[in-house]
Amino acid sequence: MNNIFFSYLCSMDKNEFHSFRLPAEWEQQDGIMLIWPHEDTDWRPYLEEITEVYLQMADAITRNEELLITARDIESVRLLLAERLSEEQIRRVTLFACDNNDTWARDVAPITILSSGEPKDYFHPRHLLDFCFNGWGKKFAAEKDNRINRQVYKAGLFYGTLENHKDFVLEGGSIESDGDQTLFTTTSCLMAPHRNQPLTKEEIDEKLRSLFPNVERVIWLDHGQLAGDDTDGHIDTIVRIAPNDTLLYIGCDDKEDEHYEDFRLLEEQLKLLRTTKGKPYRLLRLPMPDAIYDEEERLPATHANFLIINGAVIVPTYNQPEKDKVALETIQTAFPDREIVGIDSRTIIRQHGSIHCLTMQFPSLLPKER
């Protein structure tokens, strides 16, 4: 905990501190953050293709809200955006120059908690929690990525107080919030090597509830890891929360698929879960995409890795018309009042992620949507 935040915390009364909560993704947002790819990232072999995907995401996002882009070369990004976006959309874009190892904003950018308290000299109702990102358990270099949040904050582009939590590894893709009392995560990820050892599962559970004061329980899912997933099983690839106690999850019907048994067990676990009111969750099943390979390696294709923004949901598709159609229609059922926007994500999964992994939302201080 940094000294600046510690002084804020000491000045708060208990009620102010405990009014903080981790919003659900479908609540009102101020904007989205992207980290732009360049030739010295792993995107180099297909930089043109991934840049096109980023332009499509930027277009979909700026039709609905603000967009913060960090990039090594902001002038080249500015030119690309000028060719693709309208003047009104361009006005919604903020560009900031800084270097990066990779582009997975979901796991690099801060996780935002909000308070119902009023701003004061010693207190801001938005805190941006800056956790340690260590390349998903020291698999990949992350030193430049770990500096991005501090650089953006010093430039005055984060509205709120940046909290230093670099002593704890937590990736945004590893947790899902209902905005109320429940946090979802996976045992395979949070207990994976090189994260937070020697902490036990019980100690990590307690840590999560202390970081997010509204959370009264953490639901640990024990099944559902995708082949080719570098993250050790991020929850945003298999199970997502939607309004009205709804869970969207990946199911597998092919008994010959290597995922079949693990995802059958995931489905059984979800059926046994209950809300804080003791009721079963409303379960909406998303199809398992047909296997996609890069040479001989299976890639972690999933429709669950969608991004919820103001007025829309951006959904990864995989040029599999029947399964893409079912996924888009199922997600529309969960979000009936939002436009469903499909973006071909076959290039993204070549680096073992998808749309949600590349993005991070900044929730608004406006009253939450339900």
Structure description:
GO terms for molecular function: agmatine deiminase activity; protein-arginine deiminase activity. One of its GO terms (biological process) is putrescine biosynthetic process. This is Agmatine deiminase. Keywords: Hydrolase. Pfam families: PAD_porph (PF04371). The longest helix is centred in the first third of the chain and has 16 residues, at 47-62. The chain has a single domain, classed as L-arginine/glycine Amidinotransferase, Chain A (5-stranded Propeller). The strands form 6 sheets. Strands 3-2-1-18 form a 4-stranded mixed β-sheet. A 3-stranded mixed β-sheet has the order 4-5-6, covered by helices on one side. A 3-stranded mixed β-sheet has the order 7-8-9, sandwiched between helices. The two termini are 32 Å apart. It has helices at residues 3-11, 14-18, 47-62, 74-84, 87-90, 105-108, 135-138, 148-154, 187-190, 201-211, 260-272, 321-334; strands spanning 29-35, 66-71, 93-97, 111-114, 126-132, 161-169, 175-177, 182-186, 217-221, 239-242, 246-251, 282-287, 293-294, 297-298, 307-309, 312-317, 339-344, 359-363. The protein is an alpha/beta fold.
| Average pLDDT for all residues | 93
From the helix content, strand content and strand pairing, which structural class follows? alpha/beta
Q: Write the H/E string, N to C.
A: HHEHEHHEHEEHHEEEHHEEEHEEEEEHEE
- Could you give a short account of the major beta sheet? 4 strands, mixed
Radius of gyration: 20 Å
Task: Determine and state the CATH class.
Answer: Alpha Beta
In terms of DSSP E residues, the strand content is: 15-25%
Question: Which superfamily, in CATH terms, is the homologous superfamily?
Answer: L-arginine/glycine Amidinotransferase, Chain A
Number of strands: 18
Low-confidence stretches: 1-15
Structural shape? globular
Counting structural domains, the number is 1
Whole-Å distance between the termini? 32 Å
User: Can you name the CATH architecture?
Assistant: 5-stranded Propeller
Relative helix content: 25-40%
CATH topology tier name: L-arginine/glycine Amidinotransferase, Chain A
> Helical region count?
12
Strand order of the largest sheet: 3-2-1-18
